[in-house]
Every structure is written in structure tokens, then in C-alpha cells.
Amino acid sequence: MEAFLTSAGLVTLGEIGDKTQLLALMLAARFRRPWIIVLGILCATLLNHTLAGLLGGWIRTTLSPDVLRWVLGGAFIAMGVWVLVPDKLDDTGEQENASAPKNAWTVFLVTLTTFFLAEMGDKTQLATVGLAAHFDSLTGVIAGTTLGMLIADVPAVWLGHTAAHKMPLKLIRGIAALFFVGIGVWVLWFGVGKPEAPVASSLHTPAAHALTSWQPLLQASVLYIQT
């Protein structure tokens, strides 16, 4: 339980204001399928954090930083170009019911892919590696980090879904495209971070320091649950 609570608290604090929150908001505003997007976030987080916990950063150490930078940067720029292409549903709302299964599957795959890529080399993935190495409970760490992601990102999904009804679709597409291209350029320019000492870099953040001050409360909660 300690691994679960610590992981959930650390990731929730670390994700506030992170690019994945903005990504959740943009996807919800663009596709207007909040439940499908939340499901995609859940699956992407479980997959990414399970890989991080089991493999201990194998993906980042196998691919050189330069290769990883170009792969991720190019993927986000391509996504930015793709979202500019209008949907049939943007112009003909009557086809929504007939096209729902196909579009729902597309939205799920887009969300799964973009969130999985966004977490590659991110501080949350690095924190998962460090937490899995620190605690003797891989399941608790993965469950905690996944819950932390959902706590931070689900409100952003609903905010984007609500705001989408008040914004023109062309404006939403334009903002989403700029956002994705911006992430791609940022990754190409700055890279995905240093591979050295992932545990130290991920746990010495403002969020981690804030969580440290809550440690007595977390420990008390663990003792209460155990008794």
C-alpha cells in the first residue's frame, strides 16, 4: 500500500501542468469522445508504465538519444499535420451513429499512441523506473502511477470536451495542430532528457519535494489500512 500511495501522490503532483494534461485537453476538444480518450489514456499509461517497471528503462537505453529524439519529434509533427484533416463528422453530424464504432476505434488508437509516445523519456516514466526499483511491489507502483495519471488528466479531458462545444472546429483543429507540432519541435530541439541517473532526476523535482512533506501522512494511512 505504501508503494501505491507514494506512486499515486508523486505522479499526480508531477503531472500538474505537464504536457500530457494539455494533450488530454486538446484530444478531447478535437474528437469530443471523452470516455474513449480516458480509456486510451488508461491503456497507454498501463502499457508504458508496465514496460518502465519491468524493463527498467530498456527502451531509452536501447535507442540512442538522437534516434529517440527524431522518432518522437517526427511522430508529433506528423500528428500535428494529421489533425488538420477534417473529419466527415465535422461537416455531417447525421452520420455520427453510423460511423461511431470506426471513429471510436480511431480515437482510441490516436490517444493510445500519442500518450504512449508522450510518456517516452518523460519524468513520469523515469519516476516509475525509480519507484519500481525502490519498492518491492511492482503492481503497487504501476497501479499508483496509473491512478496518478488519471487523477491529473481526466479533469483535463472533461474540460476540453466541454469547451469544444463553444469553439469553432477549425479553431480547435488549428490549436491542436500547433500544439502537436510545438511538442515535436521541442523534442527535436531539446531531446528527451539525459539517460543517466533516471531515479535521481525524476525524484528530485518540486513535486517530489512536496510529496516528501506528506510522507508522515502517507505512512499513517498505510498503518491505518494495515490495522
UniProtKB/TrEMBL annotation:
InterPro entries: GDT1-like. Keywords: Membrane, Transmembrane, Transmembrane helix. The keyword Membrane applies. One of its GO terms (molecular function) is metal ion transmembrane transporter activity. It is found in: Membrane. It comes from Saezia sanguinis. The keyword Transmembrane applies. This is GDT1 family protein. GO terms for cellular component: membrane. Coiled coil: none annotated. Belongs to the GDT1 family. The chain crosses the membrane at residues 35-55, 67-85, 105-121, 141-159, 171-192. Its main location: membrane.
